[in-house]
Amino acid sequence: MNGSVRRYGGIVLALVTAGFAAGCQEGTSPSPSAASQPPLSISNGTSIPVTLVVNGSVVETVAPGGRQDPITAPLPARPWTIEARSPSGRVLSTLTVGAADYISSASGRAVRADLSCGRLDVWSGPPLLGPMYSPGPSGDCE
């Protein structure tokens, strides 16, 4: 099938294996650990800065209203225990991503916290969809 073209219901699907093979030459493939790490993302819809902590180490602080999709900081090998913390250190949400969890553009792990100061989403895989924001109890962002 090298270089062949197949038609499926009027849609042309070209299989370009020569370009793929050229990209897989010796010495050009990423390290196994970098290739196997899924992305980690955060949407901070709150009015406070939120610090993302992975396995006990600060990875990034996201400004109020900020979004990092994906975060660019280096991540440790999975499994991950991810905490989103307020400026005072209070844990706002916790997410666990296991070493064997299947993460793709259609499947992943996520956590959402609807707080009195806004919505906080942390995910690995596709972003969360869902209901409208519903404020949490007063004082939960302190």
Strand content: 35-45%
The major sheet is characterized as: 4 strands, antiparallel
- In total, the number of strands is 10
Q: Give me the side-by-side strand order of the main sheet.
A: 6-3-10-9
Helix content: under 10%
Broad structural category: mainly beta
- Helix count equals 2
Provide structural commentary.
There is one protein chain. This protein has helices at 17-23, 32-36; strands spanning 5-8, 11-14, 41-46, 50-54, 57-62, 67-68, 80-85, 91-97, 109-115, 118-124. A hairpin with a 5-residue loop joins β7 and β8. It is globular and about 40 Å long. The chain starts with a strand and ends in an 18-residue tail after the last strand. With 142 residues, it is mainly beta. The strands form three sheets. The chain has a four-stranded antiparallel beta sheet, with no helix packed on it. A four-stranded antiparallel beta sheet has the order 5-4-7-8, with no helix packed on it. The chain has a two-stranded antiparallel sheet with strand order 1-2. The chain is built from two helices and ten strands. The chain has a domain at 33-124. Residues 1-34 have low confidence and may be disordered.
Outline the secondary-structure elements.
Layout: E1 5-8, E2 11-14, H1 17-23, H2 32-36, E3 41-46, E4 50-54, E5 57-62, E6 67-68, E7 80-85, E8 91-97, E9 109-115, E10 118-124
Antiparallel strand pairs: 1-2, 3-6, 3-10, 4-5, 4-7, 7-8, 9-10
